[in-house]
């Protein structure tokens, strides 16, 4: 099946995943994580992309962002990826590719699914068995969103701000969301949408995105279309 073309219209949240080639290590030390975070901040600001949540694992990265201009996501990811690869190759005396081709992404319906994506991203180290509580994993946005750590990389999304009238209430309500893991159904929905470049949202949202972009965001059925066989003569 042909891969759906990536789209990232401005002001629509997007979940991004970038993996190491063949799932190889792309972060070998805290210094690597710190370098990536610093350049993520630089290029997100340069290309007007709000970054709401992230996690940097050993061999991949998840981001939740909202572009504030057209092509902001692709420009940010291209510059960030190239700069980090040059740094990583120099640091480890290696050559060649680091990333598994182009990044994967899916658009998110804010009012229904955005906070699920926050949780999906920041619970990644828990699902991987690295920690039992997301607060114990340093290279994610959980410390900012849930605990109030200061960061000039993180921009809160309006759905996050709606969790409470003040920062203490918001953080408390945000932590409440993490008392339970995501269901297998939600996990599968997010993973499938991201891998196939679709959306996480309902039919109305899908129709709005297709009308906005003129591009298909719904997976085609497998197999040949009905009626494809030529009539016998």
TrEMBL record:
GO terms for molecular function: DNA binding; transposase activity. Transmembrane segments: none annotated. It comes from the Bacteria. Residues 9-124 form the Transposase IS200-like domain. GO terms for biological process: DNA transposition. Pfam families: Y1_Tnp (PF01797). This is Transposase. It comes from Desulfobacter latus.
């Amino acid at each position: 099946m042909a891969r759906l073309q990536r789209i990232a219209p401005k002001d629509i949240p997007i979940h991004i995943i970038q993996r190491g080639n063949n799932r190889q290590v792309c972060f070998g030390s805290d210094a690597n994580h710190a370098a990536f975070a610093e350049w993520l901040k630089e290029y997100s600001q340069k290309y007007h992309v709000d970054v709401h949540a992230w996690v940097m694992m050993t061999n991949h990265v998840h981001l939740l962002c909202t572009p504030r201009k057209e092509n902001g996501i692709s420009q940010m990811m291209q510059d960030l990826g190239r700069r980090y690869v040059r740094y990583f190759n120099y640091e480890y005396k290696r050559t060649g590719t680091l990333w598994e081709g182009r990044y994967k992404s899916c658009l998110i319906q804010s009012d229904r699914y955005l906070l699920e994506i926050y949780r999906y991203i920041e619970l990644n180290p828990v699902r991987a068995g690295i920690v039992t509580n997301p607060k114990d994993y340093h290279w994610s946005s959980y410390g900012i969103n849930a605990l109030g750590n200061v960061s000039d990389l993180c921009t809160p999304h309006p759905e996050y701000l709606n969790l409470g009238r003040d920062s203490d209430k918001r953080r408390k309500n945000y932590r409440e969301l993490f008392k339970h893991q995501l269901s297998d159904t939600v996990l599968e929905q997010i993973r499938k949408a991201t891998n196939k470049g679709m959306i996480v949202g309902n039919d109305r949202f899908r129709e709005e995105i297709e009308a906005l972009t003129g591009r298909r965001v719904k997976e085609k059925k497998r197999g040949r279309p009905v009626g494809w066989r030529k009539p016998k003569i």
